[in-house]
Amino acid sequence: DVVKIRGDAQRRLRCMRRILERLYQLLQTDMENTAEQVYSTLRFCGVLLQKPSSE
After folding, report:
1. What angle is formed at CA 48 by the lines to CA 47 and CA 51, rounded to 5 degrees?
2. Does residue 4 belong to any structural domain of this protein?
3. Does the global pTM surpass 0.70?
4. Do 16 and 1 contact (CB within 8 A), yes or no?
5. In a domain, 15, yes or no
6. DSSP state of 1
7. Nearest of 20, 28, 24 to residue 2 by alpha carbon
8. Whether the predicted pLDDT of 10 surpasses 60
9. Which contacts qualify for 15-22: CB closer than 8 Å, 24 or more apart?
10. Domain residues for 24?
């Protein structure tokens, strides 16, 4: 929990940055999994889409 971080301002910012980086990675993975499920579902329903190129 970000609110429970103790220490000076620099330490709190470093800890919050690590937490946000982990959350970003989790959200990115979840978004990619959701996109794969959407493509699979639409393909099952007969809708063919091109997957966007990964950049």
Report:
1. 130
2. no
3. no
4. no
5. no
6. -
7. 20
8. yes
9. none
10. 20-46
Q: What's the start-to-end Cα distance of the chain, in Å?
A: 32
Residue 3 lies in a domain: no
**35-54 pLDDT tens trace:** 999 999 999 998 888 777 66
Please check whether residue 49 is in contact with residue 39, taking contact to mean a CB–CB distance below 8 angstroms: yes
CA distance 40 to 38: 5
In whole angstroms, what is the distance from residue 16 CA to residue 7 CA?
12
> Is 2 inside a domain boundary?
no
Count structural domains, the chain. 1
Give dist(CA 7, CA 10) in Å, integer. 8
Q: Locate tokens 């997957």: which residue?
A: 51
Extract long-range pairs of 9-15: CB within 8 Å, 24+ residues apart: none
